[in-house]
Write a structure and sequence with these properties.
The protein starts with 15 loop residues before the first helix and ends in a 15-residue tail after the last helix. Helix 7 packs across helix 8. The chain is globular. The chain has a domain of 121 residues. By secondary structure, the chain is mainly alpha-helical. It has nine helices and no strands.
Length: 205
């Protein structure tokens, strides 16, 4: 067996596009980190874009290059954090859906923004306590469906909605980890297996 060809060496210092991309990624990450800090401390209503820029170590104009409004900033934060947790949950769901569900519920319970807002502005969390409309909820539904698919459970809309409702219940009243774990195990056991269709070749084909 011959030796595998090696990839050519690339001098990243000669790639201004890569540098720009990395810089944009770092700036966006700094903006989201600033948002996490400010939202956890001040809540959704009192947080300002200026506060976020200061806590993220950014010029206000730089922040506006990434997020034009506070709503866009919050949506970006949700998208990033949901994607990160969802990747873990998909990996876990393949071997144990209950563990994956517990991981998702724990992430909601311990998220620094939710922990802070529960204290300073709990009423602001009411819209997140049940599945609703909009891009953020569409993303959550997509990721829940992917987790169920990885666990070979039904990913029909009613099943996805059930899991979303259970997860959303932890936004305002997360309870204890032991309780979340028990509920996750019961929910996982109750979910119907996915129906897989198998194609068979016709005789003589």
């Amino acid at each position: 067996m011959g030796e595998s060809p090696s990839l050519p060496d690339v001098d990243v210092r000669r790639s201004p596009r890569s540098r720009a991309g990395n810089a944009m990624g770092r700036t966006r990450a700094a903006a989201l980190d600033g948002a996490r800090r400010v939202l956890a401390e001040r809540g959704l209503r009192k947080a300002t874009m200026g506060d976020v820029a200061v806590r993220g170590g950014l010029a206000k104009a730089t922040l506006y290059n990434h997020f034009r409004t506070k709503d866009e900033l919050v949506a970006g934060l949700i998208a990033d954090d949901v994607a990160e947790v969802a990747a873990d949950c998909r990996d876990l769901a393949g071997s144990d859906l209950a563990v994956a569900l517990t991981r998702a519920a724990d992430a909601i319970a311990a998220h620094p923004v939710l922990v802070g807002v529960r204290t300073v502005e709990p009423m602001a969390l009411i819209p997140a306590c049940a599945p609703g409309e909009g891009a953020s909820w569409d993303l959550v539904r997509t990721e829940v469906a992917a987790m169920l698919d990885a666990a070979e459970r039904s990913d029909e809309a009613a099943t996805v909605d059930l899991v979303c409702r259970w997860l959303a219940s932890h936004v305002l009243a997360p309870g204890t980890r032991d309780m979340r774990s028990v509920q996750a195990a019961r929910l996982a056991g109750a979910l119907a297996p996915a129906v897989r269709t198998t194609s068979f070749a016709q005789p003589g084909a």
